[in-house]
What does this fold into?
Amino acid sequence: MLYNYFEPMDNYDPSTNEYDVIFVGGGAGGRFGSTYFKAMGGKQLTIEKDGHLGGKCPKNACVIHHYLFDIAVELDLARILDDKKWYPKLPTGKGKVEIVPMIEDYLKGRDEAYDVMYYQSKSQLNLEFILNREAEIVDKNTVIVDGKTFKTKNLVIGSGSRAAIPNVPGKDLSGVYSYANFLELDYEPKNVVVVGASKTGMPWASFFNAVGCNTTMIDMNPFLTAFNLDDEIKEYIIDGMKLRDMNLMENTALSSINGNGHVESVTVERKDGSKETIKADMVFVGTGCIPNSEIAAPLGVEIGGGNEIVVDSHMKTSVPGIYAIGDVTGGPMEMWKARKAGMVASKNILGMEADLDITSFPDFLHTTYEITWVGMTEKEAREKLEKVFVIRMPIKDYPGHCPIPLAERTMLLSHIHPGLNGMQKAIYDGETRMLLGAQHVGYGAKDSFQYLDHLIRKGITIDEIANMNELFLNPTHYIQLSRLRAGMKSLVDLT
Ligand SMILES: Cc1cc2nc3c(=O)[nH]c(=O)nc-3n(C[C@H](O)[C@H](O)[C@H](O)COP(=O)(O)OP(=O)(O)OC[C@H]3O[C@@H](n4cnc5c(N)ncnc54)[C@H](O)[C@@H]3O)c2cc1C
It folds into this structure.
């Protein structure tokens, strides 16, 4: 291994008098911003207090979330087909599968990922960095690390965010987890309460349920209100979780976590004031993240109501020469935003005007399905436009069990459990024939939504989509379904 988690790891030229920019935080924003800056010919230094570059994504956020999703999908199919066809009977009782060994495997793989990122940053990208030590910002031109002073013309703060834990009695009991300490789990939970039907809560709850824990998910709001999805898609997702025996409680707030040293139960309160106590030996909190802006407060930069550093579209803070990027600037807290913000800050520092547009973007979440969406919902389109055209699968009023959509990973379900094979729709402007938005519940479509986002911005029409070359069977059926209607002058829904 090249990488050593515990030792200071430096890769910088100590004779440098002044940097063009110092990035505080080597997460997604800091690493990509630094790399872009370096590539454009600037002199950068990146300071990261953890022992690796890349921030929370490989450490305990995106990668573990996808890892658990993958396991949940495998176990979901194994549960649906438990002891049927060529599937063996799952272990005992409800079939609890052990979580701790999964975490051990993850941690081994994570070291390899850190190593690759270290190699790439040092040997291929030639970044200058300091690892394993915290940056102390003195003023906008001065940063101290371990007593050594570094001078800089500009400062970029990419200090990320941390888990937001509701301030309820019992929040510090052992057995209360968030993404941040989940990898420290050292026992096998049986009864899990997940707080927050969020982009973190949903995949973790689906994972716990799939391994065989009795799983309850609560949210103080109606489920999925935060996501730009049509009601029928939301219903499909929620029905899918109910069908898999998850206990779902919306409009229900966490009142207290109870126990003597370790979690024993959770008390919740419904909107109507009624309370219920649920047995639990683990609580997983997925109630969002708070920006780590404290480091910037002494510099006099404006801090917003959500504890975020306020920036303009150039990533400039209220103090000239100080920029902020990624999660520390508030939502959306996503990798694309952190990485692009780093790139935008770098360009602006080097005098090339650039903006970060966060007004629209493709998005996704995981249950035991991958759910992706982009652009307008059907509801939104019908409210705004005269004529809207929609394609949809499965067919709404089909009297039998509709085995379509179908593609890789849903082939088996389509044939033996039609109904569990997903749902998808695309929304067009009936006048201009332009694609407005799309939503997909299934597998393998996420990649295409990155490009759909771009094509929607470019104004792609149904006629152009109908002229694309599909790789049939394709997870998104948009090309072939659009082709079935594109011959029409006046488009008629295909739902
Ligand atoms: C559970 C979970 C799952 C997620 N899954 C996805 C996903 O699948 N896809 C996606 O796009 N996004 C996902 N996200 C969001 C994504 O992880 C973040 O948006 C992204 O990591 C933000 O990058 P960042 O650089 O702003 O911050 P971070 O990655 O948090 O990096 C900030 C870095 O700054 C360092 N730092 C802080 N203070 C100092 C200091 N004083 N000195 C030196 N270093 C310092 C920290 O150690 C940290 O490494 C997920 C988030 C969570 C919580």
